[in-house]
Every structure is written in structure tokens, then in C-alpha cells.
Amino acid sequence: MAKSIIVAGVQMDVALGNPEANHAKIEARLAEAAGMGAALAVFPECALAGYCFESLDEARPFAETVPGPSTSRWSETCRKLNLHAVVGMLETDGERLFNACVLVGPKGLVGAYRKIHLPMLGVDRFTTPGDRPFEVWSIGAARVGMHICYDGAFPEAPRALALLGADLIVLPTNWPPGTECTAGHVPNTRALENNVYYMAVNRVGVERGFTFIGCSKICDTDGGVLAEAPHASEEILHAEIDVDRARNKRLVRVPGKHEIHRFADRRPDMYGPIVNLPIPPRQGRSE
User: Fold this and answer.
1) What CA–CA distance (Å, rounded) separates 9 from 44?
2) pLDDT tens digits for the chain (287 residues)?
3) Would you report the helix, strand and coil content of the chain in percent, each value rounded to 5?
């Protein structure tokens, strides 16, 4: 089995409340990514429905179950093209609405994730915080972990995915103005501190006054940039990832003199404040 795969990030505009137009674009970009040799194509957060809804009632008609019609449609496209895809969407589960992303492939739904950390922004003002633990899924030789946008601002989230064995962590996102520093530094840092590949895929375009900044990026295990789209236009970026490199957490720079191990050198016994201190109440969000 090959120990490397090509991955693609689809930086695209999204039409608010127009899933059919977004479906057409997603399927066209999947074909382009397949033409690049990609085994995995990653799309932005809320790529199916859009993000800047003004109420729960407005957003709810554009949410779907998982699995559901869209996951089946994307799986069929993936079957024809022989690749996997991560796509952001709104998920309905009873009365609850989640900001979610799904991993689909030629054989159907592989995995799903519900956004855990919710900012006071867009549809996240009305969604339910994710209620499932982090998980990692295999696609061929690579193990992939998913989180969404604001999750990347919390180092615990990608660390959990790395400890679960992720070789690649993907971050579908909707970065608006004010997040330029996040886009410029967080993907590199999360890759470096976990010795994993990290792919942040943002959207572009304007939605209800928010101009999304693009700046999608694929980083290697040292935090270096393999591919990026530094401007706010539609683009597909791609890179090859080597799973053995991601799994080797022991880095030998000068034998016997400069060696580090990203996981063995951890001190979990000293990290109690991360989980034991009281959490301040959220401001401006009804519980």
C-alpha cells in the first residue's frame, strides 16, 4: 500500500441558502481535484448551505440528516471519481441543529463531526455544541481527523486528534476579516506541535456583509507551507503527504545531542488546570 497520498483543498465561494448551486460547484471541483490525482478533497465549512443565517428558523430548512440525501449524492460522485471528500454542512438531529462536516468516499459515509467550539458568529449563534468525542478515520494509507473553524483556535482539539493517530488534520473554515493572524499562523503551529499534516480550507466571497478572506493552507509536519492560496479568490491547492513522516514523533536532529519526541516528552500530570479550573460563563449566548 502506498504510504503517501495527494490531498486537495477547495477554496470556493458559497451561495447562501442555495444548496443546488453549491452542489453543482462541489461536484465540479471534485472532478478537478480527481484530475490532480487527489485521494481526498476538502471543502469549506458550511459549503452546502452557507453560513450567515440570521436565525435558527432561517437555517433549519437547509439542514439535513447524516447520512442523508447530500452524503449519498457526494458518495456517488466520489465512487465515479475514486476519491474521498470532506464537506461542511448543517446537520439536523431532532430539534437540534449542528454545524457539521462529513467524510464520504466511494463506499458511502465514512465519518462525521459536529463543531464543538462555537463562536458568536453566523449560524453558530443558533447551533448546538457538538456532543461527540473526537475521532479519526482511515482513507487508504492515511488516518484523517476533522474539526471545524473555531475548533482550531483551541490546541486541545488537534492534540486530541493527533493522540488518536491522525496523520492529517483537516479544518474546514469560514474565516472572516479579523482572523488574518489565525489564518497566517495557526495551521502552521498546529502542524508543528503535533508533528502532523494540517490542512485549513477557507471560503471566499461576500455573505451578508462578511467578506471571507481565503488564505487556505496545507502545512507539513514541521509547520512549513506545502501549498497556500494567500488571496481571496477561488482556487484548488494540493500537496502530497507522507504518512510515515507524520507517525514518526521522535525527531533526531543531532544524535544523542538534539532529539525530541512530540508525544513522549509530554507531561499530562502537569496539565490539570486545562480541565480542572472552572469555565467562565459564555457571554451573549443563551443556553
Assistant:
1) 8
2) 569 999 999 999 999 999 999 999 999 999 999 999 999 999 999 999 999 999 999 999 999 999 999 999 999 999 999 999 999 999 999 999 999 999 999 999 999 999 999 999 999 999 999 999 999 999 999 999 999 999 999 999 999 999 999 999 999 999 999 999 999 999 999 999 999 999 999 999 999 999 999 999 999 999 999 999 988 899 999 999 999 999 999 999 999 999 999 999 999 999 999 888 887 776 655 44
3) 30, 30, 40
**Amino acid letter, 219:** C
* Rounded Cα distance, 282 and 287, in Å: 9
Domain boundaries, the chain: 4-276
Contacts of 57 (CB under 8 A, 6+ apart): none
CA-nearest of 215, 182, 214, 216 to 199 is 216
The rounded distance, in Å, linking the Cα atoms of 240 and 2 is 12
148: nearest Cα among 181, 167, 122? 122
Q: Which residue has the cell 466511494?
A: 106
191 and 239 Cβ atoms separated by less than 8 Å:
no
Domain 4-276, second-level architecture: 4-Layer Sandwich (3.60)
| C-alpha cell at position 151 | 475548533
pTM for the whole thing?
Answer: 0.95
The catalytic residue positions are 45, 115, 149
Q: Is 74 helix (H, G, I), strand (E, B) or coil?
A: helix
The CA-atom distances, in angstroms, between 70 and each of 23, 50, 109 are 8, 15, 10
Q: Fill in the amino acid letter for 161.
A: L
Greatest CA span in the chain, whole angstroms? 61
